[in-house]
Design goal:
The protein has helices at residues 8-18, 33-42. The chain is an all-alpha fold and 43 residues long.
Length: 43
């Protein structure tokens, strides 16, 4: 499965990370999800 920065799930995980609720390691390592979330939070 391929995710983009526009994927709702990636945006949701990014919001949780920015809110301090989870850390990047909590994001499932499925497809490129973790990498996309990293891109969102560092943009």
């Amino acid at each position: 499965m391929t995710f983009t920065t526009e994927s709702r799930i990636a945006q949701s995980y990014a919001i949780l990370i920015l809110a301090g609720q989870i850390i990047i390691e909590d994001v499932p390592n499925v497809g490129n999800l973790r990498e996309v979330v990293q891109q969102i939070i560092t943009a």
